[in-house]
């Protein structure tokens, strides 16, 4: 039997969760020692991490990678690079590809391709209904039993609107120990919708997307999940009212979790006054009152985690008139900085809290055993190093994605990902993906 020589790296002078500086020794992908003076050993490699914060690698429950079908905007490879550079070690690739990920062939392709690239674990999300049509359940069990081991199902982009289909989906996923991630949008209330229904949309002449279209579905699905005893995950919560519904549902023992996007934490519908479709997203940017309420709800745990809804779009689908533009914005490489700006700087979350919302909770929700783990001896070296003092200016053209549709163009943001390790392997360092 041949054994390959073990490799040891020491991350020197780093602050786990922003606490006291230590050295972290990593051997063969596992944390083998944490303490002082470990870098003095005769080790293969030392990474000077003075001043940097170590967090468990980030987990994104909501990423659009566009492969198969729209490889002109993003591929599993370019999206993996963006993810690693953003500090992510696992991402969930949404099912609204072309063909739709509603069968074992597509989900196995996504999983296999992600592993070949090796920068981040790419977990395919399976569609709930065939072709995202909302009519007939997809073969959830086949996808769950495939080599991709799908545990998260979603028709994201579209709502599973039919309550009977939703009920059956919850019953199936309960049996599979999986979870339905709902894009909560009552379609009858959002026909032709272009912007948050409110004063600004009225003034701009854009058809409104009312908050109640989200809140009504979240309330309905919380009731259904409780009735069935199944788990429900709510995608991209965008309104204060949804946070209130979730608070109520959690208090009565519903097995519900929820995510919020960086853009709904930071931006509001004032952005729309320029009519620049880079700000068009679904659900739409809401009011400042909503954004504030979402930050509070993330701080108090009503919202479990941050998910990017990274949604690359081609220039021709974004640089056009508002009504023709596709909804969505890039998110993987800016998420940490937006969380620092909206949650850490105002004192709503400390670094332990960032680890919770960016890594631990999403890993738990998706049932990933080796992600979101504590930074401790014996645990996988799946770690993100963050420079809390850094500031950087966003340039869409410099991001790793093929598409460039970032709403943060030219903005200076706080906090930067300096390095990412996936099971001890360096996947990003100083702005370069390393595979
Ligand atoms: O803004 C969005 N873009 N919201 C969605 O639900 C889908 C996504 C996409 O696929 O572009
Ligand atoms: Zn969605």
TrEMBL record:
Give the reactions, separated by semicolons, that this protein catalyses.
(S)-dihydroorotate + H2O = N-carbamoyl-L-aspartate + H(+)
Range of residues in the leader sequence:
none
Listed cofactors:
Zn(2+)
| Organism domain of life | Bacteria
Q: Where does Zn(2+) 2 bind?
A: 156, 183, 236
Look up the EC number in the record and give it.
3.5.2.3
Pfam families recorded: DHOase (PF12890)
- Binding note for cofactor: Binds 2 Zn(2+) ions per subunit.
InterPro entries named in the record: DHOase, DHOase/Allantoinase_Hydrolase, DHOase_cat, Dihydroorotase_CS, Metal-dep_hydrolase_composite, Metal_Hydrolase
- Asked if the Swiss-Prot or TrEMBL record annotates the protein with the keyword Hydrolase, the reply is yes
Q: Could you tell me what this protein does?
A: Catalyzes the reversible cyclization of carbamoyl aspartate to dihydroorotate.
Please state what the protein is called.
Dihydroorotase
| Gene it is expressed from | pyrC
């Amino acid at each position: 039997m041949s054994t390959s020589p073990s490799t040891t790296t020491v991350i020197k002078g780093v602050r786990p969760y922003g606490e006291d500086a230590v050295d972290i020794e990593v051997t063969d992908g596992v944390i083998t020692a944490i303490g002082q003076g470990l870098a003095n050993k005769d080790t293969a490699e030392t990474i000077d991490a003075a001043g940097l914060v170590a967090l468990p690698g980030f987990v994104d429950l909501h990423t659009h990678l566009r492969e198969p079908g729209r490889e002109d905007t993003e591929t599993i490879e370019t999206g993996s690079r963006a993810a690693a550079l953003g500090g992510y070690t696992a991402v969930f690739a949404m099912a609204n590809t072309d063909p739709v990920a509603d069968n074992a062939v597509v989900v196995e392709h996504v999983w296999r391709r992600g592993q070949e690239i090796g920068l981040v674990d790419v977990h395919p999300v399976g569609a709930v209904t065939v072709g995202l049509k909302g009519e007939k359940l997809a073969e959830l069990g086949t996808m769950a039993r495939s080599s991709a081991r799908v545990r998260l199902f979603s028709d994201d982009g579209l709502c599973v609107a039919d309550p009977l289909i939703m009920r059956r989906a919850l019953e199936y996923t309960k049996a599979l120990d999986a979870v339905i991630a709902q894009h909560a949008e009552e379609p009858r209330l959002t026909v032709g919708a272009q912007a948050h229904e409110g004063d600004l949309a009225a003034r701009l002449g854009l058809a409104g997307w009312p908050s109640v279209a989200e809140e009504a579905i979240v309330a309905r699905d919380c009731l259904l999940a409780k009735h069935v005893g199944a788990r429900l995950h709510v995608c991209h919560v965008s309104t204060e009212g949804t946070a209130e519904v979730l608070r109520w549902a959690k208090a009565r023992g519903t097995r519900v979790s929820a995510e919020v996007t960086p853009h709904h934490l930071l931006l509001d519908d004032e952005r729309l006054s320029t009519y620049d479709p880079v700000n068009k997203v679904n659900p739409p940017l809401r009011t400042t009152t909503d954004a504030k309420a979402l930050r509070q709800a993330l701080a108090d745990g009503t919202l479990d985690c941050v998910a990017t809804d990274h949604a690359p779009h081609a220039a021709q689908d974004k640089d056009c008139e508002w009504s023709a533009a596709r909804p969505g914005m890039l998110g993987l490489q800016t998420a940490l900085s937006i969380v620092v700006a909206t949650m850490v700087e105002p004192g709503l979350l400390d670094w332990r809290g960032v680890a919770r919302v960016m890594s631990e909770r999403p890993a738990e929700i998706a049932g990933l055993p080796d992600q979101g783990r504590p930074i401790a001896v014996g645990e996988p070296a799946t770690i993100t190093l963050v420079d809390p003092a850094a500031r950087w200016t966003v340039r869409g053209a410099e991001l790793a994605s093929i598409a460039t549709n970032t709403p943060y163009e030219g903005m200076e943001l706080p906090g930067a990902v300096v390095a990412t390790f996936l099971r001890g392997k360096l996947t990003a360092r100083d702005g370069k993906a390393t595979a």
